[in-house]
């Protein structure tokens, strides 16, 4: 089975880019393949965080809401190869809830030894 990174390399090679840009992108992909890559997806409620994760993985892995109620209630992690996408609840519903999500995210990433990005 073709890995996520193999697919991405194929798309870059087929893209209408100048040779220098292609080389830089492919070199970056080679670096990303060496270690785990964690990306925290953050945004307002209903802005498409879960849909973005599904688009990146080109399959339905994250549950997407189709009404006004928030779908993602806690941080969820989706993994393919060494790429980890962290889906978060929507920010901005209330100031209290947004601060709570930030604190939980911060504690979670400190425990895992990852660099804090928040």
3D structure, described in words:
- The chain has 118 residues and is α+β, with helices and mostly antiparallel strands.
- It folds into two domains: 1-34; 36-118, Rossmann fold (3-Layer(aba) Sandwich).
- 44% of the residues lie in helices and 13% in strands.
- It has a three-stranded mixed sheet, covered by helices on one side.
- Helix 1 (4-14) packs antiparallel against helix 2 (19-32).
- The protein is elongated.
- The mean pLDDT is 81.
Q: What portion of the residues fall into strands of 2 or more residues?
A: 5-15%
Query: How many strands, which pairing sense, and closed or not: the largest β-sheet?
Result: 3 strands, mixed
Radius of gyration in whole Å, from Cα? 16 Å
The fold-level CATH name of the largest domain is: Rossmann fold
The 3D shape can be described as elongated
* CATH architectural group of the largest domain: 3-Layer(aba) Sandwich
CATH superfamily of the largest domain: P-loop containing nucleotide triphosphate hydrolases
| Number of strand segments | 3
Overall tally of domains: 2
Low-confidence stretches: none
Q: What is the rounded distance between the termini? A: 35 Å
Helix/strand-derived category reads alpha+beta
Order of helical and strand elements: HHEHEEH
What is the CATH first-level class name of the largest domain? Alpha Beta
Percent helix, as a range, is 40-55%
Overall pLDDT metric: 81
Q: What is the number of helices?
A: 4
């Amino acid at each position: 089975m073709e890995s996520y990174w193999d697919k991405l390399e194929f798309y870059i090679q087929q893209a209408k880019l100048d040779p220098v840009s292609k080389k830089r992108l492919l070199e970056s992909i080679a670096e990303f393949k060496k270690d785990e890559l964690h990306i925290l997806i953050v945004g307002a409620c209903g802005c498409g965080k879960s849909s973005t994760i599904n688009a990146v993985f080109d399959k339905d892995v994250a549950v997407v809401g189709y009404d006004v109620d928030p779908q993602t209630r806690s941080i969820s992690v989706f993994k393919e190869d060494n790429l980890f996408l962290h889906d978060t609840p929507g920010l901005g519903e209330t100031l209290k809830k947004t601060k709570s999500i930030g604190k939980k995210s911060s504690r979670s990433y400190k425990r895992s030894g990852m660099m804090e990005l928040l």
